[in-house]
Amino acid sequence: MRARRWAGAVTGLGLAASVLLPVSGADAAERHGGGGARPCPTLDASLPWYGENRAALQEFIDEAGRCGRNAGRHGPRPLALFDWDNTVVKNDVGDATTFWSLRNGKIRQPPGKDWSRTSPYLTPAASAALSAACGTATPAGRPLPTGTDADCADEILSVYSSGTSTAGAAAFAGYDHRRMEPAYAWANQLLAGYTEREVAGFAAAARAENLAAPVGTLQQVGTKQVTGWVRYYDQQRDLIAVLKRAGFDVRIITASPQTVVQVWGRSLGIAPDEVVGIDSRTRNGKRTYDIRGCGGAADNTVITYLDGKRCFVNQDILGVRGAKAYELQPAERRQKFGAGDSDTDATFVRDATGLRLAVNRQKTELMCRAYANADGRWLVQPMFIEPRGQKATPYPCSTAGYVNPDGSKAPLLDDAGNVVPDQVDRVHG
Question: What domain of life does the native source organism fall in (predicted)?
Answer without folding.
Answer: Bacteria
